[in-house]
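User: Hi! Is it possible to get a structure for several chains at once, not just one? Here's what I have:
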Amino acid sequence: MDVYINLDFESNEPIYTQLMHQIIAGIAKKELKPGDALPSVRSLAADIGINLHTVNKAYQQLKQEGFILIHRQKGVVINPDGVPQADDQYMNNLTSTLHPIIAESICRGLSKEQVLQLTGELYENFTKKEGGDK
Amino acid sequence: MDVYINLDFESNEPIYTQLMHQIIAGIAKKELKPGDALPSVRSLAADIGINLHTVNKAYQQLKQEGFILIHRQKGVVINPDGVPQADDQYMNNLTSTLHPIIAESICRGLSKEQVLQLTGELYENFTKKEGGDK
Amino acid sequence: MDVYINLDFESNEPIYTQLMHQIIAGIAKKELKPGDALPSVRSLAADIGINLHTVNKAYQQLKQEGFILIHRQKGVVINPDGVPQADDQYMNNLTSTLHPIIAESICRGLSKEQVLQLTGELYENFTKKEGGDK
Amino acid sequence: MDVYINLDFESNEPIYTQLMHQIIAGIAKKELKPGDALPSVRSLAADIGINLHTVNKAYQQLKQEGFILIHRQKGVVINPDGVPQADDQYMNNLTSTLHPIIAESICRGLSKEQVLQLTGELYENFTKKEGGDK
DNA sequence: GTGGTCTAGACCACG
DNA sequence: GTGGTCTAGACCACA
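Assistant: Yes, the chains can be modeled jointly so their relative placement is included. Here is the combined structure:
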């Protein structure tokens, strides 16, 4: 069962980033499991109608962050050892990423409970079977 | 009482974005209150040693999002009516921003509780007096 | 004082790798010091007559390994904090890199002394003033 | 007595290169001696579960460098006359191979002594009986 | 067939 | 001006 890739070509978010996010989301939802094969650079690029270099950039970055392995000719697979667990560096990044987001949510009048509820719901959506994607 | 601006010129985050975030954080912490005056584009640019255009871009964007008002002669002030409260569009944006962040946190093995705790702590840091910002 | 870039377009070694090696050699020889500016992607590409993407790839990799920083618009500089020092991972890589090289040198009849002398000379060539490059 | 072949299919190093290195290491350790027979292309490929072409490529390259002889019917043997000793071309190759490796080790803060010690240890590991290879 | 490299030209965001 | 992104097409190494 494949993961459906949904790209927004109008978005400011680079396509290769969107692709990365979708694959990471697939892993989070367990639709992609360690060891699973991913489509080749060329076939995925053809499928979603983008350039193979764009797909390649997404794959390279996912590889560099430990989500996937790129075998020489065997293609691309989800890291069989699982994704590297959170370390200090990741937690720092996560904190600085969330920092401005939460600042704005406070300015916009969201209560702590609202923020936590939204966050919790998003988290659960990944862990539910048949979790509704965006 | 001024907000201290701390820019990281080596970050991937654009400087104008960092500037926006710092001002928004100042508002979230109530260090900047509705009606408070902000430095002029020129003086702020000179103070922190960056390009006029960069400060201008940050201000324009903050104005466009309703955080500040820019009067021709009276200068720049925090929106006296307060920041526009969360609407549907903002909530959608917030959701799509958080979505990939939470997806990765799940992949990296963070529990729901860990995510909620981090989020909660960040939220509280803004509402505490003398909240320790970075 | 600039570092002279000498590329071998006939070599099997990718051009971007050669470029990386030359810059690393420049750092080893102290011709490039922490904080020093490097040419922009475009100007270096024009200077040595290769595509800007090839230069970019070398720069990106050097950045990823901590040798250089890429400022948004200020251009490229040698990491002012110095290059990340050897860690376990680097030592493991170094060992597996040297392993087959030394194996072959043994088969070819080089004595331990010969290998150590060659290694030592190469090391010294970097630390000498006016060290003779290849 | 056979040499144990250990391939890493996730490495960036081509499989045929890994195979060559393992055979060369076997010769360096004297586990493979001049005149010793090597498995045929077919049987070796079957044993380690890789493509015929891959084994063939490794053998052809080893032959071309003088490590082995390939007789049409008699099979593959380690060169009975021993491996060609170091000539100028080999020394030049060795030097340019080591050059960038040592440059990086200097950047990463390794002292000359550390480099020589590592090199020496690796050398000794091949000449010791029961040398602990990876 | 696969991914890796290189080239080339275009547009955009940033400062 | 800078780097970042995307596209496009080519050749090669690998299995």
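Helices of chain C lie at 15-28, 41-48, 52-64, 88-107, 112-127. Residues 91 and 97 of chain C are 10 Å apart (CA to CA).

User: Great, thank you!
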